[in-house]
Specification:
146 residues; globular; mainly beta
Amino acid sequence: MRALFGIVAAAALVAGCQQKAELKADGGWLRLPAVTGNPGAAYFTVHGGDQPATLLAVGTPFAARSEIHESMKGEHASMSMKPVEQVAIPAKTDVKFAPGGYHLMISDIAPKVQPGTRVPLTLAFADGKRIEVQAVVIGAGDPEPK
């Protein structure tokens, strides 16, 4: 009887320790364009919550336009990119926006946005949820932040 009680108590303890996964984003950074007037690119990681989510857009108050894009390898190791209308965020899975993959193209960046500053990116999901991530700004030739 004690063994059964011990097993039930251990199972209850393990179930109580399991944390609920929350949809969130972090690790944001923005690379300014080398030529003023060209678009910059922003990157971040979305951490999926307990339920799948769909990212529809990423807005920013410091630029005229932002679009989600995906880079793809083509023939002869060439790279191309295309706009993406939505990105699936599976439950309890990280989706990284990084060079060579998903990224945010940002056009007409305000002149006040300079290397070393931080800017907000607001992620909008299909269920109406919005999440803000702060992105550190780096210059065109600077190494990406760690």
